[in-house]
Amino acid sequence: MHECHGHVAMDGVNFSAAMARHRDGVDRDFVRRNLKACMDAGISFFRDGGDKYMVSAFAKEVAQEYGIDYRTPVFAIHKEGYYGSIVGRSFQSMKDFAALVREAKRLGADFIKIMASGILNFRTDGEVDGPSLTYSEIREAVKIASDEGFCVMAHVNGAENIKNALSAGVKSIEHGFWPDSGVIEYFLQSEAVWVPTRATVRNLIGCDGFSNDVLNGILKAQGDLLREAYEKGVPIACGSDSGAINVPHGRGAHDERSYLNELGIDPERGNEKIAELFRIK
Ligand SMILES: [Zn+2]
């Protein structure tokens, strides 16, 4: 079983409370409990999406005790003032970005994770909150990462942002909500994998404070495109974003796989491609 997108630093309940555990040093028992939950759920591959307190770096040190091939970017990288401070570190200039890539390498990263856009706005349809990186910023980021032997995992939502990330050379699109049919050709050209993390939205249905209509709209728009992309040959991988609200470690991957199966998608080829690409060259 593959979990191609998770955050071992978080607990699936409350991310600020989970992060607060690690502020003065990694809560090692907490990490071990999460790795155990993954092992018990049959997960043997886990690709982390990063955190700001070296939690996933610790997880990587001990993951083999749980039989898990664990990959991490250590921290995710976002532009100062943009979305992403919860999972990583920020840059202002591309020179800062290059320094962060070298730092990630020093800390044992397997790949680079960038935050290329904001997150979904759950109050309105079709919106992504906050500014996004430009094509040239992503292009430059991919080049810097690639010169250090890394490929790039990109958090990205919104059709234009997805296209920018794909033509700039990222190797996986994380989330990819609010796509349009044009993104499929970009996927096919770039040979990138789509990790749609449907569990992050699907598992909010019925929760207080969220509109089921909005959630279902987000899922339907992505689901229609996923089905079409899969039929045309885009590799789609199983990553639940476990650690996010209502997406517990272990169960998250099973939820995500069943949501993909409902669309007629078998994530096996996508999973294998993630495992093959997301290691340092
Ligand atoms: Zn994530």
Characterise the protein shown here.
This protein is of the alpha/beta class. It has one domain: Alpha-Beta Barrel (TIM Barrel). The chain is built from eleven helices and nine strands. It has helices at residues 15-21, 28-40, 55-62, 94-106, 135-147, 159-168, 183-190, 199-202, 212-231, 251-262, 268-277, and strands at 2-6, 45-48, 69-71, 76-79, 88-91, 112-115, 152-156, 172-175, 193-195. It has a six-stranded parallel sheet, sandwiched between helices. Helix 2 (28-40) crosses helix 3, helix 4 (94-106) runs parallel beside helix 5 and helix 5 packs parallel to helix 6. The longest helix is centred in the C-terminal third of the chain and has 20 residues, at 212-231. The chain is globular, with a radius of gyration of 17 Å. The mean pLDDT is 96. Zinc ion is lined by residues 5, 7, 49, 241.
Features:
281 residues; alpha/beta; TIM Barrel; six-stranded parallel sheet; 11 helices; binds zinc ion
- How far the N terminus sits from the C terminus, by CA atoms, comes to 24 Å
- Annotation field: number of helices: 11
Q: How many strands, which pairing sense, and closed or not: the largest β-sheet?
A: 6 strands, parallel
Strand order of the largest sheet: 5-4-6-7-8-9
- Rg is 17 Å
Strand content: 5-15%
Q: From the 3D coordinates, which CATH architecture would you assign?
A: Alpha-Beta Barrel
Top-tier CATH class: Alpha Beta
| Ligand identities | zinc ion
CATH H-tier superfamily: Metal-dependent hydrolases
* Total beta-strand segments: 9
Instruction: Give me the secondary-structure category.
Output: alpha/beta
The H/E string reads EHHEHEEEHEHEHEHEHHHH
CATH-defined fold name: TIM Barrel
Task: Summarize model confidence as the mean pLDDT.
Answer: 96
Helix content: 40-55%
